[in-house]
UniProtKB/TrEMBL annotation, chain A:
The lineage of its organism: Bacteria, Bacillati, Bacillota, Bacilli, Bacillales. It comes from Salipaludibacillus aurantiacus. This is Anti-sigma-W factor RsiW. Pfam families: zf-HC2. Belongs to the zinc-associated anti-sigma factor (ZAS) superfamily. Anti-sigma-W factor family. Signal peptide: none annotated. Residues 9-38 form the Putative zinc-finger domain.
TrEMBL record, chain B:
Residues 24-89 form the RNA polymerase sigma-70 region domain. Belongs to the sigma-70 factor family. ECF subfamily. The keyword S-adenosyl-L-methionine does not apply. Pfam families: Sigma70_r2, Sigma70_r4_2. This is RNA polymerase sigma factor.
Length: 215, 186
């Protein structure tokens, strides 16, 4: 044992490397003279070295599989969450009752590729196929604009449909009250933008006679 | 490493069981090793390590992703190991080993499998002896010594794993070390 309680503490501090440089020098000087402290320090160091020489080893084979088999079966809501995670294309049968613009996966893809939908009603976006679906029994009141995606209509759209960089799939004309326009060229797009800008702001000359007799 | 672990855990939290398998592959050896050092028996170590992972899985929602995952996991594992030791009859490992459980140390399993050259046998005996000495420590010192000297963890981490103040951890390491010193001196 150490020669004193005080030096016992010093031995631990020394071993744990908690001494200041000065304390360390002083204690090392003490060890040179004191056999008891020296012996205890040496024994403790040896003890630590022996314990640290204990080998590490691996978990038995099949360990992970064994645990995986015992994991609780996933609950229904969990399975649904998983399904949603594995199939992110069904974002949601999102319900929107205001005019809106949705852009999907804005964080991951460049602007060119994200599907943008503008309309009022309930729809589904299938991102993998790049299709916007108006499900059966659902109705979009007013115009619908889809950019960078196809549109598939099982339900109803009361206004005009404009598909930019996409196609109009599978629908009978009865389901759409307005006109269907596909715009796939940049110039067309520009034209569309310009036209709608003017029709909104000024009454565009060509159109003004057929509809739009505002105020 | 930390970023990868966080991503995997976020997946597990979402209910992705496959991500949990990845998480296990990262930590199973350490958890098993801690359990074995605490219990000194391969079967019990496997039991406790597996139970630790099952609990980690079912309680993953209570894990705070801003904290170190290994600390949380090791805490579950050491608690289970300490519980297991408490439930044993006091002298179980001394008396009952005679009754045919003596082959359950890691080293006896290795040496039972193959014929080893002499120097490796000596190595194994040495390793077996170290484990026996660890087993002689009272469980609370044992845990502190294992985490400090075998897992090389900081006092702060050990204090979080054992849910004890750093000063108490220090005392336990000192006492455990002192107990081992006295035994190893002879
Ligand atoms: Zn002295």
């Amino acid at each position: 044992m150490a020669c004193s309680q005080e030096n016992q503490k010093h031995i631990y501090k020394y071993l744990d490397e908690e001494m200041t440089l000065l304390e360390k020098k002083q204690f090392e000087a003490h060890i040179m003279k004191c056999d008891e402290c020296h012996a205890q320090l040496r024994e403790l160091r040896k003890t630590v070295a022996i314990i640290q020489s204990a080998s590490h080893f691996e978990a038995p084979k099949g360990f992970t599989d064994n645990v995986m088999k015992q994991l609780p079966k996933q609950s229904k809501s969990q399975t649904w969450k998983n399904f949603m995670r594995k199939h992110p294309f069904i974002l949601a049968a999102a319900t929107f009752f205001l005019i809106f613009a949705v852009s999907l996966s804005a964080a991951f893809s460049d602007d060119d590729k994200e599907i943008v939908v503008k309309g009022e009603g309930q729809f589904i976006v299938d991102e993998t196929r790049g299709v916007v679906i108006i499900p059966e029994g659902e109705s979009i009141s007013g115009d619908l604009i889809v950019r960078n995606g196809d549109i598939e209509i099982a339900g109803e759209v009361t206004g005009n449909i404009t598909v930019i960089n996409g196609e109009y799939l599978l629908a009978s004309a009865e389901q759409v009250s307005g006109e269907i326009e596909e715009i796939n060229q940049f110039m067309d797009w520009l034209w569309f933008q310009t036209k709608s800008f003017f029709s909104e702001v000024v009454n565009f000359a060509d159109d003004s006679e057929s509809d739009n007799h505002s105020d | 490493m930390d970023i990868i672990v966080k991503k995997i855990i976020a997946e597990v939290k979402k209910g992705n069981q496959q991500a949990f398998a990845e998480l296990m592959d990262l930590y199973k050896d350490k958890v098993y090793h801690i359990a074995y050092r605490m219990l000194g028996n391969v079967h019990e170590a496997q039991d406790v390590a597996q139970e630790a992972f099952l609990r980690a899985y079912t309680n993953i929602d209570s894990y705070d992703i801003n904290r170190k995952f290994s600390t949380w996991l090791f805490r579950i594992a050491t608690n289970l190991a300490i519980d297991r030791i408490r439930k044993k009859k006091p002298d179980f490992h001394l008396e009952d080993q005679v009754a045919g459980t003596e082959d359950l140390t890691y080293y006896s399993q290795i040496s039972a499998d193959v014929d080893l050259p002499e120097d490796q046998v000596v190595q194994l005996e040495m390793q077996e002896w170290i484990q026996q000495e660890i087993m002689e420590l009272p469980p609370k010192y044992r845990a502190a010594i294992i985490l400090k000297y075998l897992e090389d963890l900081s006092l702060k981490e050990i204090s979080e794993i054992l849910n004890l103040p750093v000063a108490t951890v220090k005392t336990r390491i000192h006492r455990g070390r002192e107990a081992l010193r006295k035994r190893l001196r002879d």
